[in-house]
Specification:
The structure is a single chain. The chain is α+β, with helices and mostly antiparallel strands. It has two domains: 4-105, 2-Layer Sandwich (Glycoprotein, Type 4 Pilin); 109-175, Dna Ligase, domain 1, CATH 3.30.1490. Helix content is 30%, strand content 27%. Strands 1, 2, 3, 4, 5, 6 and 7 form a seven-stranded antiparallel β-sheet that branches. Helix 1 (4-23) crosses helix 3.
């Protein structure tokens, strides 16, 4: 787990990236000493979720830590506010209403079925035939899904049949450390 000062710094990096992107300014990725506080090695990936006025407006992430954490967070924040194909880009007039949430993913572990997960603790990633879907742990809680529904919804997100997890799809579970600048 990371402490509050590091959470604050990571959220500032995300907010600065969103503000720069939306306002059209040059995006600068503020250095953060991730090696000394262990942030780079403590997570397998990162997702940044953007809400505007409480409504989901983007969620983009990376499954692997291929670069220092501060750069991944800045890049994901920019993509979440501007490139999520499900939503329109955040407009400058909406900046004051932007709420950010960062999810630091732990390692992926195999999951055979709903009995292998705990709602609110585990996220899911399902893959089959080159299609892949991922839902963060907080999604099942927000939608009040049981474990079987969570599996089915993750399959659907991958563009697969809802019962694909029973038909040979590969399923992983993971934990995530989730924090935001305000409740969403």
């Amino acid at each position: 787990m990371i402490g509050d000062p590091d959470r604050t710094r990571l959220l500032k990096i995300a907010r600065d990236a969103v503000t720069s992107c939306v306002s059209g300014a040059t995006v600068t990725e503020t250095p953060l000493d991730v090696e000394s506080d262990g942030l780079a090695t403590g997570c397998a990936g990162v997702f940044v979720t953007v809400h505007v006025g409480g409504d989901l407006r983007g969620c983009i992430g990376r499954l692997e830590a291929a670069e220092p954490l501060q750069y991944s967070i800045a890049r994901c924040a920019i993509a979440a506010c501007s490139d999520d194909p499900r939503f329109p880009a955040v407009r400058p007039s909406e900046l004051a209403m932007v709420q950010l949430e960062i999810s630091l993913l732990g390692p992926m572990q195999p999951a055979a079925g709903p009995a292998d997960i705990e709602i609110g603790r585990h996220g899911l990633m399902i893959e089959s035939g080159g299609q892949r879907g991922l839902l963060l742990p907080q999604v099942a809680v927000e939608w009040r899904w049981d474990a079987e529904t969570f599996f089915a919804q993750t399959c659907s997100k991958a563009g697969l049949r809802p019962d694909s997890w029973r038909r040979g799809a590969t399923v992983w579970k993971f934990e995530a450390e989730v924090f935001g600048d305000c409740e969403t």
